[in-house]
Write a structure and sequence with these properties.
With 308 residues, this protein is mainly alpha-helical. It contains 13 helices and no strands. The radius of gyration is 24 Å and the shape is flat. The relative contact order is 0.15.
Amino acid sequence: MASFLLRRLLTAIPTLLVIATLAFTLLHLTPGGPFDSDKVLVPQIQHAIEARFHLDEPVWRQYLRYLADLARGDFGPSFQYRNTSVNELIAQGLPVDAAIGASAMLIALLVGGGTGLLAASRPGSWRDQLPMSLAMLGISVPVFVTAPLLILLFAMRLHWLPAGDWVAGSWRHLLLPSLALALPYTAYIARIVRAAALDALGQPWIRTARAKGLPTHTIVLRHALRPTLVPLVSFLGPALAGVLTGSIVIEQVFGLPGIGRFFVTGALNRDYTLVTGITVLYGALIIGLNLLVDLCYAWLDPRVRNRT
């Protein structure tokens, strides 16, 4: 297991290097620059600004300089947000996205997982057909539709929750965006768990457990739950990365100060360091969460652990 973990960590370094290189190259190939505007600057001022951020140097030297800073964990200064580093912007937005993403995934796992197990325990009944129909609806309706509907219902009509804004530590400001972000993931998890549980319940050891007279809930929780988690873990890797890095739509609808807002602003204004820094952060999160998924595989399936 230790050698497997070491190999994965070593392969993560060149992967992050490729991500940073592609982001840096594509941004510099895009027409325009971070300080281009409708108002023409005096040439001396333009040159001074470019020299301050080393934009007057050849691209290859800018690339090597950026890699050196990146190796120290420094994403560099932001071109759009003056006197502010990319690290500071990420530190502002990441806690918001992490709180909403973690809450959304917790809701999705509890509701979706429980619904999928309940549906698999009674296949073909209304306990199966009704939740799966709702799950298909949850997958089909996009977030930019469900989020305003939740605001209209719980904020505008019932006045139970605030319609937007962000207050750190306030569960009332956290619940509505988390619920909106969790709905599609809840539907996906419910369908994945149902399919995996049905497959597990058809195995020989389950028939043996039924022949011994064990109740259905005991069979599902004690004998079928662990193999059911294997396909769910595959889904959770990219899903966790998606919810933890936040949703641009959720941030826009609820007015949240997350990373997505900085990413969009940086892309529109050619803020090279900001866009590249957030891209590398996304890549690192996906790599780390996929590594966590592989470790969960080894715990759930002894055959994987023996191969490592």
